[in-house]
């Protein structure tokens, strides 16, 4: 395991140096979540408080993790990538140890390096699911590891409950899906180990009580934390953000993935089907009791590995509201493929290998193809107005330079409202915001804060609406401007008469001036 730890450290450093234009891509950092986290850390360094001064849709733990790294290495893209990669490496190391316990050192090492590491890296190094996803990855791996490595029933319940509580400090939702997955696996463990049905129910009830108490010990301080910074309506929306369902429905049109074609089936979904088949084969194996008694260490490791597959199933039902999230969490089902290998006989193992070869080959070839693609980008590092460097493709450099030109000089004094894109615009360009909302997405302006949010919005000088496909018809030609404003309808109607001088930047979106209120304008200002 020490060797695996050294390997993943070398892998991270090699990836950062080998494909920097992918990892430090300008568009992703300026417009997407990565830049938002950098901006949040910057505002924390300036004394602002999450939720009270800075609207924040996640829990405080991940922001605190990156803030701590920023105190050591500076608040920069490199620090953010390293902080996220450390979390990914820890998660991979835990799951790799379970793979070794399940299928042996040689096969387990090969699987961890050729299977798990390439699949898990995008969520860690590149943080495709957002920087909070790497911390969720680690905590879910801790749940799997506790299922396998903590033999004492009561202690395991307390530790699992505490881990779920910590997971809730990152983001609401994962803790719920993880809880149901743990409940199923713990109940199955008792079915294998306890013969009397009544005894099993009593033990499971005690396990449930301990998990909930441990979770409450983490949840109550979070409740106090939110209550100190938000009104009660805001507290409830942080603890149970039901409005996010409407947000995802407005942002992503597809609830379920479309037919991927033969290539997508072989590379993306065949491993998923195999892993889920292995999950149900493991759950309903008639020899389960005998296997537990014969090799409890291996059986426990298998239980930890199938946790991810079961979590993904519950996530699809309870948590993932669009195809993007379902595909983005597919790394969870890959550890369960080691269980498929352990359950299969020699002939089935050969068949499983043939089924998985296209996906394994695609993952490994994807590393080379990423480097080749990067060469075609002709990307180069460039310095942004805040003095930090990102990698720009030729077209990207031109577009983002135009954005700076449109905003004009004295960027630190420009009050800019950002729609659809994230806080990276503020962070890298040094523009200012008014109010706690620093970017606007569908359903993010809640009824209890609408008046104050509108008053703050109208105090901005400029508006930037990023184009991620919602403005396909707005190509800069003359004619009516089609603009998507992710605001409550009445607020949008009051904002539209105040907009002037639209300018379209191809590939980025629209910029506009927000006119000062006229004497007859009765809208908030």
Protein traits:
single chain, 525 residues, globular, four-stranded mixed β-sheet
Description:
- This protein is mainly alpha-helical and 525 residues long.
- Helices cover 65% and strands 6% of the residues.
- The chain has 23 helices and six strands.
- The strands form two sheets. The chain has a four-stranded mixed sheet, with helices on one face. A two-stranded antiparallel sheet has the order 1-2.
- A hairpin with a 5-residue loop joins β1 (380-383) and β2 (389-392).
- The radius of gyration is 25 Å and the shape is globular.
- 40% of the residues are buried.
- The model has no long low-confidence stretch (mean pLDDT 88).
């Amino acid at each position: 395991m020490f060797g695996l730890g050294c390997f993943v450290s070398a892998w991270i450093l090699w990836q950062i140096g080998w494909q920097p234009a992918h990892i430090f891509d300008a568009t992703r950092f300026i417009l997407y979540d990565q830049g938002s986290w950098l901006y949040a850390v910057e505002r924390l360094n300036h004394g602002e408080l999450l939720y009270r001064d800075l609207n924040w849709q996640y829990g405080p733990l991940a922001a605190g993790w990156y803030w701590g790294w920023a105190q050591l290495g500076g608040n920069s893209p490199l620090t953010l990538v390293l902080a996220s990669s450390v979390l990914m490496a820890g998660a991979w190391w835990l799951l790799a140890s379970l793979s070794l316990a399940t299928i042996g050192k040689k096969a387990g090492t090969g699987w961890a390096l050729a299977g798990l590491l390439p699949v898990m890296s995008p969520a860690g190094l590149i943080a495709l699911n957002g920087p909070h996803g790497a911390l969720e990855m680690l905590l879910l791996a801790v749940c799997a590891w506790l299922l396998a490595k903590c033999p004492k029933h009561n202690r395991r319940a307390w530790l699992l409950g505490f881990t779920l509580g910590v997971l809730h400090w990152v983001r609401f939702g994962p803790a719920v899906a993880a809880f149901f997955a743990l409940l199923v696996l713990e109940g199955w463990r008792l079915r294998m180990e306890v013969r009397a049905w009544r005894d099993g129910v009593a033990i499971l009830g005690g396990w449930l009580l301990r998990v909930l108490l441990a979770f409450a010990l983490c949840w109550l301080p979070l409740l106090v934390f939110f209550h100190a910074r938000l009104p009660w309506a805001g507290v409830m929306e942080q603890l149970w953000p039901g409005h996010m369902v409407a947000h995802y429905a407005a942002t992503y049109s597809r609830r379920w993935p479309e037919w991927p074609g033969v290539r997508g089936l072989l590379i993306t979904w065949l491993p998923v089907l195999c892993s889920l088949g292995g999950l149900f084969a493991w759950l309903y194996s008639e020899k389960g009791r005998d296997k537990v008694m014969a090799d409890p260490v291996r059986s426990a490791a298998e239980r930890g590995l199938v946790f991810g597959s079961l979590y993904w199933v519950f996530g699809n039902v309870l948590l993932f509201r669009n195809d993007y999230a379902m595909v983005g969490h597919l790394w969870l089902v890959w550890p369960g493929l080691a269980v498929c290998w352990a359950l299969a006989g020699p002939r089935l193992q050969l068949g499983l290998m043939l089924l998985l070869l296209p996906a394994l080959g695609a993952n490994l070839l994807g590393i080379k193809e990423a480097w080749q693609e990067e060469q075609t980008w002709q990307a180069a590092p460039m310095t942004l107005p805040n003095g930090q460097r990102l990698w720009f493709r030729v077209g990207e450099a031109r577009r983002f330079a135009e954005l700076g030109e449109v905003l004009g000089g004295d960027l630190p004094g420009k009050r800019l409202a950002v729609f659809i894109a994230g806080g990276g615009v503020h962070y890298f360009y040094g523009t200012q915001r008014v109010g706690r909302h620093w970017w606007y997405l569908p359903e993010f302006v809640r009824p209890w804060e609408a008046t104050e949010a509108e008053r703050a919005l109208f105090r901005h000088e400029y508006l930037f609406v990023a184009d991620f496909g919602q403005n396909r018809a707005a190509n800069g030609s003359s004619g009516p401007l089609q603009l998507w404003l992710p605001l409550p309808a009445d607020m949008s109607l009051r904002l539209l008469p105040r907009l002037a001088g639209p300018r379209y930047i191809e590939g980025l979106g629209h910029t506009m001036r927000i006119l000062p209120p006229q004497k007859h304008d009765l809208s908030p200002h």
